[in-house]
Amino acid sequence: MPLLCNGACRGKMVHMNANDYPRRILLAVTGLSPQIVTETLYGLAHDEGWHPTEIHLITTTEGAERARLTLLSASPGWFHRLRRDYSLPEIQFDADNIHILRRQDGTPLEDIRDAADNSLAADAMAELVRVLTADPQAQVHASIAGGRKTMGFYLGYAMSLYGRPQDELSHVLISAPFESNSDFYYPTPASHILYTHAPERRPIDAHDARISLARIPFVRLREGLPEKLLNGQARFSEVVAQAQKALPPLGLVLDPKERSITACGETFTLKPAHFAFYWWLSARRQQEQNGVHWSEDGIAEGLLAYYAQVAGMHSGEYVRAEQAFSRGFDQSNFEPAKAHVNRALTKALGKRRAEPYLITALEFIPGTRYHRFGLQLPSAAITVISIESGRE
Q1: 180: how many CB neighbours lie within 10 A of its CB?
Q2: Global confidence as pTM
Q3: Helix H segments across the chain?
Q4: Which CATH code, of 3.40.50.11090, 3.20.20.80, 1.10.3720.10, 3.40.50.10770, is assigned to 23-243?
Q5: I need a labelling partner for 224 at 20 to 30 A (CA). Which of 178, 298, 324, 384 fits?
């Protein structure tokens, strides 16, 4: 919704296009400069025609008190004044939306002074960003313009870990001499005289100030996180460690005795039939054989050979599978197993990290329009632990 505004329309914001997201969240870190909120809000509306439906702040006790007194009070109430001056729509922002950093015992944090305080701030920001980005109907715009430098860094990093395609990160740039003036909150539609700092005390007009929004590109790592970290609370350091696991060289370890799969530092188990299916395809890739298609000869026999090692040739599970395959092996046997294994990999590793390990379409069968299926991992990346505890 771009704002059309020049000298003739100063004070009147004109919105052109409706926003796609019903819930639009401005998230900011603030310290001793609560005007970051009004400056960012103005920049978003002026430069982008975008306005939030709610605002959330992360701050210390001192920062919370300053925000409450300067932004939300009846006077001066700069947040309310900005909305009135520019006819902005309703925005949900009150004391409940000011999130004060707290120690583990629940006591509020007055300032960030040491490594322990830094860790608490990082954990709190990561958790709030996780919660806000869990809503698919929400768009989060995070500003790192306020607070201590470490707070801005942690908020930016949290957005990198949890941010989705619709989420954004920015900083605001304020024209001189207003950028360091504690009495400046936004460019006013009418003349509003301020004074520079002593000893000069030169009069300046807030109407003449200029604010520009600097968008910050960031790498989105969300799809590389396991589902458990997207759905449950975790310390910042834990989430970073999980994201880091996506970076080492590829490696897949299968343990038929335990029916376990290890990849990207994560280990999980599968049911016998599904483990045998994945082991069979992994072994073919390890041996640099072609992928498979359910219509080809010998497919059922090849799979049963691995299932016998996992379930036991004389087990009821194996006997029932052998009887079923003797009546025919087709897409109805193959596709569900492939889908189940791929879902298990994605759940354990996250979408991005799971991708190299998934069962996927490979080469075409000559003379047909059908693909074979298998793994694309380098054969050297696959290790299978033998049931006798040696290595194959």
Answers
A1: 11
A2: 0.61
A3: 35-43, 61-67, 78-85, 115-133, 149-162, 227-231, 236-244, 272-286, 299-311, 316-326, 331-349, 351-354
A4: 3.40.50.10770
A5: 384
